[in-house]
Amino acid sequence: MKDAYAWLAIGLITLAAATGDVLLAYSMKRVGDVHELLQRRGLLAVIARVLMTPTFFLGLGAMAVAFYSLLFGLSWGNLSLVVPASASLTFVANAFAARIFLHEHVGRRRWIAAFLVAGGVLLMAV
Amino acid sequence: MTLRKYLVLAGITVFSPIGDALLARGMKEVGGISLHNLHSLILAILNPWVAGGILLLLAFFASYMSALSWADLTYVLPATSLGYVLVALIAHFGFHEAISPTRWLGIALITAGVGFVAAGPSVTTARPPRLHHDPVSQEAEL
Asked: What interface predicted TM-score (ipTM) does this complex get?
């Protein structure tokens, strides 16, 4: 049962983290290039524009869910299972989600990179 | 990609693992926190290691948001994953922890992944589709 809860938490972390990453990426694309904005309008304008983007707060909320799912997972599973498994699954989930929701062109180079990093993170835990 | 943007990516890579390490060090000094002494969690930020860790994690979040404003998510995440390698190297050379051959293989895979994605373009999308009554994009049009 402990394993089932740990894997449930890993699934929740992956889902919430990928949702959060996609929402934050979407929000920041709508805000625009922060470097250009900083030069043209200043720091306060950048902060105001970020705070005026509702999806930014949804992204933060999803990240908070991912964090509490991590705490839940750590209470049932080992650190060496929960953290690397969720991190590597999140890399792959993000590649799918970015392609579907952000319309990013995830070509062969980026798929290979996502799987290499995901595999590497898993091996780091062994 | 300008030097400034590479520095932002380097910031994401470095701030997060070092921030986590400072938090871990600080929380060891603070000691275990249970339901009976939850107030210790608030007082923990007075610990200099914890405060330093929080500052670095704030710097990480600002750098991450900045990078996402000009680069794809599928570029930023792999390109900044060298942080995992950094933690292992700090553990090996700083704290003399042993790294097994499997972990060295993991380090090699991550480094190869970073090389793969960093050699490609940082952004592949046009402007995102506009939502109806979106104040942000309406302001940008003015």
From this structure: 0.84
